[in-house]
Amino acid sequence: MMGLCEGGNELPGYVKAIYFVSRCLIVAEEVSLSGGQAVQRVRLLEELENPGYNSGILDNDLIEYYQLLAEKGDVQAQVGLGQLHYQGGRGVQQDHQRALHYFLQAADAGNPIAMAFLGKIYLEGSDIVKQDNDTAYKYFKKAADLGNPVGQSGLGLMYLYGKGVDKDYGKALKYFSQAADQGWVDGQLQLGNMYFSGLGVRRDYKLANKYFSLASQSGHVLAFYNLAQMHATGTGMMRSCPTAVELFKNVAERGKWGEKLMEAHIHYREGRLDEAFVTYTLLAELGYEVAQSNAAFLLDKGDVSLFLEQDVFVRALMYWGRAAAQGYSAAQVKLGDYHYYGLGTPVDYEMAATHYRLASEQQHNAQAMFNLGYMHEQGLGMQQDIHLAKRCYDMAAETSADAKVPVALALMKLSLLFSMKYVQESRWQEWLLLFNLDQSLGPNWDLYLITTLVGLLGIVVYFRRPQPQ
């Protein structure tokens, strides 16, 4: 442990590494074949501003609808509900009893996915289902024979560790390869483990990294953990402590304490805002970026009654800053807004522009680009530059379709300002002299103009008169 991601003699980085690794070890030991319970991250700011924002939380009415379909024999509904209760998440608690109920119904109808998940349930065992290798093998084999990757991966795992069958690395490699070729995350993870440890194959860290990376794209906790170990020790790749810490953090946040995120969101939806804030602040101190931004959001909206009015924006600014430091672009924009309007801090246009520029350049945030354009247009915190303002507005419109209408209005205003500036800078007095009609046409120029207009009117009336039949 002493050599893990030491960054010179800087104690904070060293302590941070030990802290993440210790939490990761706890999470990794608790992860089963299911890949761990899903942790739902709901951003309150995006949920409010975007009506189409998909938080992933299922409404009770929708769940009841699927339950009705399942009871009527809809196999797809049975499989979906079985997976939902087996994995947990999306506002649904883990419940292996109900998962077993739905999977048994779908398996009796010949569904290979349900068979494979029944194999996983019996292979793992739980308080609900007694661990049984023979039953697990039976279901895995049925599913694998039907070409299901979950069943293939399950068989590979049984041959890899000799659970209920003789240990056979060759068969394990074959089944894992079949599952990985179909994109199944467990097959990719176990292939990575075999190449990393040289089990039945020649040790190959590049292939191990490839399969761990593929599994991590599907969110498997152990894939993140294994990649973090490789980056931390420089195994098969260049050593990178920042990457290792980010990966370890991803693992650490998937522990059971992450369930508090859903608890806080339930408080929020039920109107217990102070309780939601307290839970979010607890998780914010543990380093959850979503919790930091949500705590700041509640303070920003004035939904928290625990502090004096003058302290609210100061605390919100602190949490927005922490979330922005972890790469959340909306929080970076909020920091710019707070410095622009002087919320919790003195008005500082230069600092506001700095935060907008960071969000624009690093996270390509359309709102930040638009705000930068406005500050260039008005010369706030920087030299006034209409050309740079137009460039920022155009970039915002290209980045987000939602920005097209406000950008169009801003560009119309900008064109008007540009025209006015052009007239002011041009020799407008000389242009007015050219249009001095008294000198050009004489004192009776108004009679000439009226005669011309009457003639034009007569021509129009002539051509628009009714034609004879």
UniProtKB/TrEMBL annotation:
Gene3D superfamilies: Tetratricopeptide repeat domain
Keyword flag Transmembrane helix: yes
Domain of life: Eukaryota
Keywords: Membrane, Transmembrane, Transmembrane helix
InterPro entries per UniProt: Sel1-like (IPR006597), Sel1_AlgK (IPR050767), TPR-like_helical_dom_sf (IPR011990)
Keyword Nucleotide-binding: no
Transmembrane annotation, as ranges: 445-463
Family matches, as Pfam families: Sel1 (PF08238)
Similarity comment: Belongs to the sel-1 family.
Protein name, entry field: Protein sel-1 1
Organism annotation: Periplaneta americana
Gene, per the UniProt record: SEL1L
